[in-house]
Design a protein that fits this description.
Chain A is mostly helical. In chain A, about 45% of the residues lie in helices and about 0% in strands. Chain A has two domains: about 10-35; about 40-80 and about 115-210, no CATH class. In chain B, α9 (about 285-315) packs across α10 (about 320-330). The chains are: A mainly alpha, B mainly alpha, C alpha/beta.
């Protein structure tokens, strides 16, 4: 026998390679599968720059302004609607009327050019979410938008994926939180009330495709 | 002529030289020319695939009502061809048919490459191929699963399983040969490379024992696949209510058709290879004749399938079914395909009743080609002609393929040939170790039915 | 669901400068984003394997541009409907136009308008597409170079009194325009207005003058007519008041039960028309033979023996039967002649109506709604141009260079005129030969008024700020009257300031909201076809070939040729799209030795055209029907080069037909794009029909095709809240208004001529037409075919990814974003109503066209299946409102687009537990059946068999 075809350590290398190849194949499937579940994919918690440094904490917490005061369309329309410049100026023509922070708003108001906001909560265009019917059933804004009142810049706190939507819609009425109950005591109240809050508001949980896709 | 499975009693060494030799003999000029052509066709295939995916499935001839056409025809045709390999290597192995030994390697390779071609089509024919993976059950964050009532997820599962098992079976069967290549290849480089794939085979008795066990188990797994895969494929049509599809005969009829076309393709490939590599002593008339016999048997089953279709169409009393079977196919648009199918699949195989035909290599070759054509025609008849004439006359229309359709079909043939030529060059065409066993058995005069 | 509002002005005034680019809603208007989303979804998600792609790819964040100030009535995302009117050749049809954030998206009929009653014709449905046509002219031109509109108008207004000033425009009925015309004549004495349309109705008024001594408009009361005899009158499809008449006729026609009474329709015409498909006795007759039939009918009803000489036995039998039926139902029958028929025929028909006591009962006469019905026309203008009297020629809308008879050689005449101004929506054939060009505003951009056929004054109000630098007809004419800054709104308000006052309580706002000024219909006149009624001798018909010129049911006289929806609309009987053909009868085809798509040459004297043949059973022999309006050489890429321009052989008069004509087979062939190739049912009982007598004898003749079938599958009725549709084929004329409505509502793309030839048309709703041929008679059955929403749908179980499923309320749902495009569902759909996006048809939709997209319907990307959804977006919207208000959905609250459009009301839709509604009651009738019932698919769409009411005397 002349010198051997393979060095003595080649078996180890060989096994290692086999393992590596198998893992590689697996990761081709697993990595994307994990990625789409990360906030990188869902764009959660991204504080987008906005043309106006609008601070919800101040307006909601300090001034106690209701969500629906500015986003009034949420009761009548599929889209909650971003308030018109007119609405801002309703107050700010009186107070902070010369604050530099509001320069953009004033310019918009007098020039008639709309303010160019960035959309934070963005659903794919083949998904038709309707605010009015959710609001009418007493689903708090908080459920989907989080506690906006405590945000300097609005960020998306929920994944807004289809899975996340249907989780509620499949959950059963005994999981629909009662209105005007602070988030941390939802569990407790649901323990007590069961599906009563939902029944009182005759909540119907739609899981049919065309409820959202048309 | 002798009915021997092996002419002469060559020594192990001689067999080795003859059969392993094919791998280190340099390819002749013709080989390079054919190889170049097949390579070019392969390139064309992949450029056309890119074109289709980028532009849209509209570049094919499909339309409403004929929403399935070349894509599915070719899929079924290739997957059908794939069936002979596993049949020969698995089923004949379980039935201890010694004549499989000299042709199973080639047949398995054919299976593998054919299934590869087939597997491309279902993905390609999707409107949105990039979502093909939705056919597989995985916990998606949409929280939606595939629909098991449909045949297609089963298709995806069946075909991928079939491919995997065939691959393993083929590879496992090759390990001893790879080992002997490792030991006998002329250059060190080749020996090194073959060695990598030989998985350190050492030919000890224990190794052989384990090997046998594993091979037997795989054969056991592969056998039901031969029946299941094409049954699943057939349900792509059988579960539909389209006149001409809506039939319970489909699974057996499809499986028979698959093996029918598979053996035809084996003959188409085996005869030239036998000639080129001078394998007359190991691949004898006996082998060819057996293939011919099996072709005849399966061919008869297929013919029976046709008859059943016509009968059931009439028996159903359904106007659309009757029109489909008795008028639309033989007389309607593209009826030529129907007649070609009938001639190639029903009449041609009848010639196999004559021994002289079964033993004439030329006849076998020509007929195998005709049968391949016939079986393609059968799929065209079932898919396209049925869809052309459905329930509402207002939506009747007739189908014509585009150049892309044809290009892709030809492309897959090129790709198939490309892979097959590589196989001929790089791997032993005949399972050497098994031939050696066979010779020992023959010498010991072990009876073989 | 949507509220109707009055004055648009407030909304308009508060719009951003460029309404088409950001109406300022928090949904960006441009569907582009929606589309890109779908594509990115494809690519991005394809790689990453995501369902929701809230942002799986690094696309720039979508923008939100809230209005600066918001008009109170407008809520972003909630549509508003406004009343307006569309005018075709002078006659107004009232419409309600749905707008999203000041963006018109969909046209519906105006229930309060006498000419609409809430229904529409194809042209109205498609008109919204013209508004967004990217090829509309965007500014005025002076000798081809852009100029400024206000300067141009100011100069016009300041012109010294002109001599030899001529106007050429479509027939008009606008009272405001009448005033303005008077003003122009005052300012420029001797100004002459020529009213012309290729399909104008001069001969109708001429006929009335022959009969009554003055031009009058006949008002037919089909609701009271037991017997109707139509002489080449397609009164349900192609006449000014067709939408209304179709409804009226259907009221008297539709059977409610086997015992019911239905009207009887005799009809003689060259080629089958929508009305013809409902006729009980349809007599194929060449245009020239109509006159003979009229004369024979007249003498028959007058008791005289019909001149049997030049009538065939079949024609005689037809005339006799019709005459006896008419006679036996005095005052409950009427005769109507086609607009294009010569004056003498109209006069004869008036005499007949007089004789059968129709006048005063089923036929009334009013002053014509249109201005100067017998005033100047094209011939007068032409001779004036010839003799060089025309100094300045203002052409509005009408397109004589394309439509004028070849004898006139209009281009040459035009060259003689020193000063020419053309006002139109596009740079068409005429515009290119005129010195000045002024873009004309779309009616949805203009203020104006017009009269309906019955004279009711209909108001036209804009729904969107002018997209381009354009004027309305009224403003242009006002400029000539000396108005330096003509403003449509001001003009209209001035015109109706007092009108409103007269109307007592009704205010201007109320009028606008109604879209019509009530009680302005013209009063019936006392007439009797007196001495004048003695009809002049009617010219007999030769035996030589005739060419009959018809308006195109798709592009009318060519003015809608730029509208791709209409171009791709299958014609009621031939199913031809994207072009016209030489339509002949089978006998004539045999005589000529030609078949479909063989090219023939039609030669009239020095002029000839080549067209492909289409063979249509039921067509008159030795007669070739050709459609006007094709072969445009200018007017936008959609219009140009589609079909053949047959104006090139159309005689000046009679314009209805040409004879003698040589018909020569050229031996060439030319592809026609038709959507249906086989018209024979092959005895499969798909579209059922029967004669009234038979129906009475065996009411249950469709019994085998309805009712439950044994099934292993579970029942779907989870609740009694189920949607369904009922279609009565006995009042379906095949007019295809529903098809366009569906296209507009559901963002359905067009695929072009090649697409149709390849069988890839996308219409969710198609109309299958079957021809039942027995001897000379052909029975046409139109069957609107849409997704049947099967309770046990074959498409659902074969979809591997659940992209199509059943909803608890009985809809067959299609989820585009889940579809991977296996097309298995289409293969397994026995009705073949599923459509597939073979390419990305929506990819390069022009930005302006994207404004028309219905924001509530996903724009489909490449590679997904689509189909009728029962307008699910409307259902869900109504549900949400009902849920918000905590109530049930009320009957009639949801209407599908096709249902709204259908002039005869043949399509009914609603909840199956709403007893008393048509949709429920109709499907209880014995003639109800389900198509392919035996397959056990349990369709939610039920059809009612077509019942005809032939005259027993004529049965042989």
């Amino acid at each position: 026998m002349i010198h051997p075809l393979y060095p003595h350590w080649s078996n180890t290398v060989y096994r290692a390679v086999i393992v590596a190849v198998l893992l590689g194949l697996a990761s081709l499937v697993l990595l994307p599968w994990l990625y789409v579940r990360t906030t990188y994919n869902t764009n959660q918690f991204v504080p987008w720059d906005q043309p106006v440094e609008f601070d919800h904490r101040h307006h909601v917490r300090d001034d106690g302004i209701e969500c629906l005061y500015c986003h009034s369309a949420a009761e009548r329309s599929p889209s909650a609607g971003v308030p018109t410049t007119e609405v801002c100026m309703g107050c700010h023509s009186q107070i902070w009327s010369d604050s530099p922070l509001l320069e953009v708003v004033r310019r918009s108001y007098f020039s008639g050019k709309p303010i160019n906001w960035r959309r934070v909560h963005d659903l794919p265009d083949f998904t038709y979410f309707n605010h009015s019917v959710h609001v009418a059933r007493g689903i708090d804004c908080v459920n989907c938008h989080g506690d906006v009142g405590s945000m300097a810049r609005v960020v998306q706190v929920q994944p807004l994926t289809m899975g996340w939507c249907v989780d509620c819609h499949r959950a059963g009425t005994q999981h629909i939180p009662p209105p005007n109950v602070p988030r941390d005591s939802w569990e407790a109240s649901l323990q007590m009330l069961g599906d009563e809050p939902a029944r009182n508001r005759d909540v119907t949980l739609l899981t049919t495709c065309t409820a959202c896709h048309r | 002529m002798s009915k021997a499975l092996l002419i002469g009693r060559p020594t192990d060494a001689a067999l080795g030289d003859q059969l392993l030799g094919t791998t280190w003999r340099r390819g002749g000029r013709t080989w390079w020319i054919v190889f170049a052509i097949s390579g070019a066709l392969t390139l064309m295939l992949f450029s056309l695939i890119t074109y289709t995916v980028v532009t849209g499935i509209g570049v094919w001839g499909n339309m409403i009502p004929v929403a399935w056409a070349f894509g599915i025809i070719n899929f079924v045709w290739w997957i059908g061809i794939g069936h002979a390999g596993t049949f020969i290597s698995a089923i004949l192995y379980l039935f201890e048919q010694p004549w499989r030994t000299s042709i199973n390697r080639l047949a398995e390779a054919m299976t593998l490459f054919a299934v590869l071609q087939a597997a491309m089509y279902p993905v390609l024919h999707l409107g949105r191929p990039w979502f093909g993976y939705w056919l597989f059950p995985y916990p998606s964050q949409m929280e939606v699963w595939p629909n098991v009532k449909s045949a297609l997820p089963w298709d995806a599962a069946a075909v991928s399983t079939y491919f995997t098992v065939s691959l393993l079976f083929w590879y496992l069967g090759m390990i001893p040969d790879l080992a002997s290549l490792r030991d006998s290849a002329p250059t060190r480089r080749r020996r090194f490379i073959y060695g990598l794939f030989a998985l350190g085979w050492n030919g000890k008795a224990t190794t052989w024992r384990h090997y046998r066990a594993a091979y037997l188990v795989l054969a056991g797994i592969a056998t039901p696949l031969v029946l299941s895969v094409h049954s699943v494929v057939s349900s792509d049509f059988a579960i539909g209510l389209t006149p001409g599809w809506h039939s319970t005969i489909f699974p057996p009829y499809f499986v028979a058709g698959a093996i029918f076309s598979g053996f035809a393709m084996v003959l188409t490939l085996l005869i030239p290879v036998r000639h080129i590599f001078k394998l007359h002593n190991v691949v004898t008339e006996k082998h060819l004749e057996n293939c011919a016999k099996l072709t005849l048997v399966t061919g008869l089953i297929v013919a029976y399938g046709y008859i059943t279709e016509w009968f059931l169409a009439w028996y159903s009393g359904n106007a659309s079914e009757i029109y489909q079977a008795w008028i639309a196919r033989p007389l309607g648009p593209r009826a030529t395909v129907f007649w070609i199918t009938m001639i190639c699949n029903v009449l041609v195989p009848q010639l196999f009743w004559w021994k002289r035909v079964r033993r004439s290599v030329l006849a076998l070759f020509v007929m195998s080609l005709l049968i391949n054509i016939g079986m393609w025609g059968e799929r065209f008849m079932i898919i396209v002609q049925s869809l052309q004439r459905e329930f509402l006359p207002s939506m009747w229309s007739s189908y014509a393929p585009t150049w892309v359709d044809i290009g892709i079909f030809v492309g897959t043939m090129g790709f198939f040939l490309f892979l097959f030529l590589l196989f001929l060059r790089l791997l032993p065409v005949v399972a050497v170790s098994e031939m050696r066993e066979l010779r020992h058995d023959l010498e010991r005069g072990v009876e073989h039915g | 669901m949507t509220t109707r509002k009055h004055d648009r002005l407030r909304v308009l005034s508060s719009e951003p400068a460029e309404p088409e680019f950001s109406p300022g809603v928090d949904e960006p208007p441009s569907e582009l984003d929606r589309r890109e989303m779908m594509k990115l979804l494809a690519a991005g998600a394809g790689l990453a394997g995501v369902g929701s792609l809230a942002g799986c790819m690094e696309e720039p964040r979508e923008r939100i541009m809230p209005r600066v100030t918001n008009p109170p009535e407008l809520t972003p995302g909630v549509p508003l409907s406004y009343a307006t009117s569309m005018v075709i050749d002078g006659f107004a049809t009232g419409l309600l136009v749905q707008t999203y954030e000041a963006r018109p998206t969909k046209v519906e009929g105006n229930p309060d308008h006498p000419a609409s009653l809430g229904h529409t014709m194809t042209y109205h449905q498609a008109s919204v597409l013209d508004l967004y046509d990217p090829h509309r002219a965007r500014g005025p031109l002076e000798a081809g170079t852009p100029t400024m509109l206000d300067r141009l108008l100011r100069n016009i207004a300041r012109r010294e009194p002109m001599t030899g000033l001529w106007f050429l425009m479509h027939p008009q009925s606008s009272p405001l325009l009448a005033d303005l015309i008077a003003a122009v004549r005052q300012r420029h004495p001797g100004t002459r207005f020529a009213f012309h349309s290729p399909l104008d109705r001069r001969q109708v008024y001429e006929g009335a003058r022959l009969a009554f001594g003055r031009p009058l408009e006949a008002q037919y009361r089909f609701t009271q007519a037991d017997v109707v005899v139509s002489l080449d009158a397609d009164f349900m499809g192609a006449m000014p008041n067709s939408v209304r008449w179709a409804y009226d006729f259907a009221q008297r026609r539709r059977l409610h039960g086997p015992g019911g009474q239905m009207s009887r329709l005799y009809l003689a015409e060259p080629r089958p028309s929508p009305t013809g498909s409902l006729a009980d006795h349809r007599l194929p007759a060449r245009p020239s033979e109509i006159a003979l039939l009229a004369q024979a009918l007249l003498s028959a009803v007058q008791g005289a023996t019909a001149p049997s000489g030049n009538l065939t036995p079949r024609q005689q039998r037809w005339v006799q039967a019709a005459a006896s039926d008419l006679g036996s139902r005095r005052g409950r029958s009427l005769v109507i002649a086609g607009d294009r028929q010569p004056a003498a025929v109209h006069a004869a028909v008036h005499a007949i109506n007089q004789a059968i006591g129709a006048i005063g009962s089923t036929v009334a006469f009013t002053e014509p709604a249109i201005l100067e019905p017998l005033g100047d026309g094209l011939p007068e203008l032409a001779s004036a141009m010839q003799s060089g009297q025309v100094q300045t020629l203002v052409i509005v809308e009408t397109n004589p260079v394309y439509t004028a008879p070849p004898e006139l050689d209009f281009p040459a005449l035009l060259a003689k005129v020193p000063e020419t101004l053309y006002a139109g929506d596009m740079l068409d054939e005429t515009a290119r030969q005129c010195q000045w060009f002024v873009p004309l505003s779309h009616y949805m951009e203009s203020w104006g008024d017009a009269r309906a056929y019955d004279g009711s004054i209909s108001l036209i109000q804009p729904l969107i700020r002018r997209m381009y630098d354009s004027v309305s007809v009224w403003e242009l004419v006002a400029a000539f009257a000396g108005d330096e800054q003509p403003d449509g709104h001001r003009l209209v308000r001035q015109r109706y300031a007092d009108e409103a006052a007269d109307a007592g309580l009704l205010t201007w706002q109320k009028h606008l909201q109604l879209g019509v000024i009530p009680n302005t219909a013209l009063p019936p006149q006392q007439v009797s076809a007196g001495a004048g009624a003695a009809p002049p001798q009617l010219s007999g018909a030769g035996s030589s070939f005739e060419v009959s010129f018809e308006e195109s049911p798709s592009v009318y006289d060519g003015r809608f040729a730029a509208n791709s929806w209409l171009q791709e609309l299958p014609k009621p009987h031939t199913k031809i799209t994207w072009g016209n053909a030489a339509v002949v009868s089978p006998a004539t085809a045999r005589e000529l030795g030609v078949g479909n798509e063989d090219v023939v040459r039609l030669v009239r004297g020095a002029f000839h055209v080549d067209l492909p043949v289409y063979v249509l059973p039921g067509h008159a022999d030795r007669c070739v029907t050709v459609e006007l309006g094709y072969g445009r050489s200018a007017g936008g890429p959609v219009a140009e080069g589609v079909g053949v321009n047959v104006y090139r052989i159309r005689p000046p008069s009679p314009a209805s037909h040409a004879s003698p004509v040589q018909v020569i087979a050229t031996g060439g062939t030319q592809r026609l794009a038709y959507t249906q190739k086989v018209f024979d049912q092959h005895g499969r009982d798909i579209a059922r029909y029967a004669e009234a007598a038979f129906y009475q004898a065996q009411p249950q003749f469709t019994e085998a095709q309805r009712g439950p079938l044994p099934s292993w599958l579970p029942e779907f009725f989870e609740n009694n809240y189920q949607w369904g549709m009922t279609i009565d084929t006995m009042i379906c004329t095949g007019c295809s208004s529903c098809v366009v409505a569906c296209q507009a509502e559901n963002n359905i793309p067009v695929v072009g001529k090649k697409g149709v030839i390849d069988d890839r048309e996308m219409h969710w709703l198609r109309i299958d037409t079957y021809r039942e041929i027995s001897g000379d008679d052909v029975e046409f059955i139109h069957q609107p075919m849409l997704c049947q929403h099967c309770e046990k749908a074959p498409c659902e179980y074969v979809c591997p990814v659940y992209a199509t499923q059943h909803s608890p309320d009985g809809l067959n749902e299609m989820v585009y974003n889940r579809c991977i495009g296996t097309r298995f569902c289409s293969n397994n759909c026995p009705y073949k109503v599923r459509r597939f996006n073979w390419f990305d048809y929506t990819e390069d939709t022009p930005k302006t066209k994207q404004l028309q997209f219905n924001p509530n319907v996903t724009v489909r990307a490449r590679g997904v299946m689509e189909k009728c959804t029962f307008c699910v977006q409307r259902i869900r919207a109504a549900e949400i409102v009902a849920r918000r208000e905590r109530r049930e959905i009320q009957p009639g609250e949801v209407a599908t687009a096709c249902q709204q459009a259908c002039p005869t009301g043949a399509i009914q839709f609603g909840l199956l537990h709403h007893n008393g509604t048509n949709v429920v009651e109709w499907r209880k009738e014995p003639r109800a059946y389900a198509v392919l019932h035996d397959l056990g698919t349990r369709p939610r769409v039920m059809y009612l068999a077509k019942i005809t009411n032939p005259n027993p005397e004529l049965d042989d």
